[in-house]
Automatic annotation (TrEMBL):
Residues 110-125 have a biased composition (Acidic residues). Residues 702-718 have a biased composition (Pro residues). Residues 719-736 have a biased composition (Basic residues). Transmembrane segments: none annotated. Keywords: Metal-binding, Zinc, Zinc-finger. Pfam families: MSS51_C, zf-MYND. Residues 109-191, 548-579, 697-736 are annotated as: Disordered. InterPro entries: Mss51-like_C, ZMY15, Znf_MYND. PANTHER family: ZINC FINGER MYND DOMAIN-CONTAINING PROTEIN 15 (PTHR47085). Residues 163-185 have a biased composition (Basic and acidic residues). One of its GO terms (biological process) is negative regulation of DNA-templated transcription. This is Zinc finger, MYND-type containing 15.
Length: 736
């Protein structure tokens, strides 16, 4: 069995949901004619019997006149020749937004050829449309950033593009029978000079932001928005979309009809006045004049569940979990039996069912956290976008947690430009956590920690954070590293005496999201004030422009400063430090697979949410780690992932992994799973590598149950003082 929950980009999961629903909608809608009218009459009779949804529903009409989509043929960095819909729908294990760059780019329809020269900037601008909370344009005119501002209908652009790859060289004509676009559009698929144009997006949502239906109008074939066309009037198409959204809602919930509907276009509102009452739905007296009926409107991050075998969505079929393990979702007995009998046996559900049942028993334990919002964020129906938006967490590092994507010109890393360093030079390394609004991190405690922290509760109390603070979602990375250094390494590798070391060199392998949140690792200087740390972020998923970069974070009492380095081989002088008053954190970057990294051996290797079986480079990196025989700890988002990592380690090196332990500093946000009900959390479990013994050597046994946390060691004596004591013991040195 294979599950990829917790590893894929959420925006792509969102795009897959849009694509799946739109494909079904167009297949059922068919071609224009009497057959469509007959189907609509059947739908109307069904809808009149549906229960009423008390929430207001909104039909949004979003035009796009300035952005087109160019399709490339792929390149060496891409996932392969031809990006098919199967990659997006999950039939292959892993896909990131960056994998689409060789195939998809956004171009300006107003700038012409100049848009192609600015491909990267335009692509970033197109991706911004994944949320309603980013600056947008309508009809080519800029509007101020607002949660009520319409987007340029670009969120579905990527699913539309992937649909074209699925349908072949003829594009999407199969799904849009009346949208004949001629040979020039087929040419557009092969050339960036003739981009595809999504002229208008029809979107049905409820007042809370849950998307219920979507329709894509290509190349202005439907005429201008709100005007009739020789080929088709917009009203019948919008009416068909409303019917399908009620009979088969994309978002969560059973079929239902709204108590009231409002429309975001005056002409279309008039056209629907005679149609909507036939469904037993009340149409608002006047059209909606703004983007949303509520200031807190946000697209919900909920997604429809899918069958583990056939990948059909819950809006297509009824899904039920396996009656024995309650972990895996199936659309019926046929898919369950097919998965049960899958060959070879160790990938069948018959083999995994009892193990998955054991993993499901962890659900309550992993949801036991001290925060006031725990019940909300650990629920299977957790709406992360609404949680973040309701707290104003839509800027800076918080965009890494959601479908928000930074706009053009926004530096992703602290050395992106000189101005982005100013927040750190001013003494506040956490300013990027929220660019607007109150500070999220309290001032540093005056006294260093008196003991070792083993829970969020203890850390929050010492740090002065309230249990309603969401900071644990970002701090899970430095606190997990702290827990490994102070608890797990002494427990599993006591011979290293790691707690008495004054400097540590740590390799952070396959670092993607962690590097995007690099400044939160400054908290390690607060928790380990006596240690000078060097974190070396390594992995080919890191931004190429950051290769060989180096900078230093330094702590002087309650203040912080950042200095960029000139090269990876240069360690900046620490002459500005007060005597014994501070330590620094060195950050280095290498954008290559770990097995190609050259340099000194580290004290420790750490990887977050590793997924050994999801990337081929691990088959080379794991043997490299075994040759170094350095302590290496990894986290996983589920117990299932830990088992799969152990199998990959055995295949790659002949070694294995230790028994996974729940991480007390795991993220409180439950990760969404499409085809299963298992509990997934970022950094949920921790294990370390158990290397294959050297010839004639013994095997290090995997540790048993974790012993009580070690008692805190006394602060180490400064090295200079120790050297003085040794000189006194030797007596005066003789001169020759």
């Amino acid at each position: 069995m294979e599950f990829v929950s917790g590893y894929r980009d959420e925006f792509l999961d969102f795009a897959a949901l849009l694509l799946g629903w739109f494909h079904k909608f167009m297949a059922e809608r068919g071609t224009m004619g009497t057959s469509l009218e007959g189907r609509l009459h059947q739908l109307e009779s069904q809808i009149r019997r549906l229960p009423q949804d008390p929430a207001l529903w909104v039909l949004h009409v979003l035009p796009n006149s300035s952005v087109g989509i160019s399709l490339g043929q792929g390149a060496e960095p891409g996932p392969g020749a031809g990006l098919g819909a199967s990659r997006l729908l999950g039939e292959e294990p892993l896909l990131h937004l960056r994998d689409l760059s060789p195939y998809v780019s956004f171009v300006s329809l107003e700038d012409g050829e100049e848009g192609e020269e600015e491909e990267d900037e335009e692509e970033n601008g197109g991706e911004n449309s994944s949320t309603e909370k980013v600056e947008a344009q309508e009809g080519g005119e800029p509007v101020p950033p607002s949660r009520e501002s319409p987007q340029e209908a670009k969120p579905p652009a990527q699913p539309e593009v992937i649909q074209q790859d699925k349908d072949g060289d003829d594009g999407c004509r199969e799904d849009r029978g009346e949208d004949e676009r001629g040979p020039e559009k087929r040419k557009g698929r092969r050339s960036e000079a003739v981009p595809l144009h999504l002229s208008c997006l029809l979107l049905v949502t409820d007042e809370h932001g849950t998307i219920l239906g979507i329709d894509l109008l290509m190349d202005g074939a439907q005429g201008s928005v709100g005007q009739s066309s020789a080929n088709e009037n917009l009203a019948p198409r919008a009416y068909a979309l409303l019917c399908h959204s009620m009979a088969c809602p994309m978002g969560s919930g059973d079929p239902r009809k709204p108590r009231q509907l409002t429309v975001g276009d005056a002409h279309l509102h008039r056209e629907l006045e005679s149609l909507v009452p036939r469904l037993g739905v009340k149409l608002a007296k006047i059209p909606m004049r703004t983007w949303g009926p509520r200031p807190g409107f946000t697209f919900a991050s909920l997604r429809a569940r899918t069958c583990h075998v056939c990948h059909k969505h819950s809006f297509e079929v009824k899904l039920t979990p396996c009656p024995q393990c309650s972990a895996v979702l199936y659309c019926g007995e046929a898919c369950l039996q097919a998965d049960w009998r899958r060959c070879p046996d160790d990938v069948s559900h018959r083999f995994w069912c009892p193990r998955l049942a054991t993993f499901m028993e962890r659900t309550g334990e992993l949801a036991t956290l001290p925060f006031t919002y725990t019940a909300e964020v650990t629920s299977e129906t957790f709406n992360k976008e609404a949680f973040l938006a309701s707290r104003g967490l839509t800027h800076g590092y918080w965009t890494q947690l959601s479908m928000l994507i930074p706009g053009p010109g926004t530096p992703k890393h602290p050395w992106g430009n000189t101005s982005s360093l100013s927040c750190f030079l001013s003494g506040d390394p956490y300013q990027l956590l929220q660019e607007n609004g109150p500070a999220l991190m309290p001032p540093l405690p005056l006294d260093p920690p008196k003991g070792l922290f083993g829970s969020w509760q203890d850390y929050y109390t010492w740090r002065g954070l309230g249990l309603d603070s969401p900071m644990a979602v970002l701090l899970t990375y430095p606190l997990t590293m702290y827990y490994i250094i102070t608890h797990l390494v002494p427990q599993s590798f006591p011979e290293l005496n790691i707690q008495n070391k004054q400097s540590l060199k740590i390799h952070v392998v396959e670092a993607g999201k962690e590097f995007d949140l690099v400044m939160v690792f400054w908290e390690l200087l607060v928790l380990l004030p006596h240690v000078a740390l060097e974190l070396h972020f390594v992995g080919d998923s890191l931004p190429p422009e950051s290769d060989q970069r180096h900078f230093t974070m330094q702590r002087d009492g309650p203040e912080a400063s950042v200095r960029p380095g000139s090269g990876v081989s240069t360690r900046l002088s620490s002459g500005t430090k007060e005597k014994g008053g501070c330590r620094d954190l060195q950050i280095r970057v290498s954008t290559r697979p770990y097995h190609l990294l050259q340099g000194p051996k580290p004290d420790l290797v750490i990887g977050f949410n590793s997924g050994f079986g999801l990337k081929d480079t691990w088959l080379s990196s794991l043997p490299r780690l075994q040759s170094l025989r350095v302590p290496a700890f990894f986290t996983e988002s589920s117990e299932y992932g830990c088992v799969m990592d152990d199998q990959t380690m055995a295949v790659a090196t002949g070694g294995g992994t230790s028994s996974p332990q729940p991480n007390p500093f795991r993220s409180p946000f439950r990760l969404r799973a499409a085809d299963n009900c298992m509990p997934w959390y970022c950094n949920a479990f921790i294990f370390h590598l158990v290397y294959k013994p050297l010839q004639g050597g013994g095997v290090r046994p995997a540790p048993g149950p974790a012993p009580p946390p070690p008692t805190p060691a006394a602060p180490p004596v400064p090295a200079r003082r120790r050297r003085g004591e040794k000189k006194a013991a030797r007596g005066p040195r003789r001169r020759r």
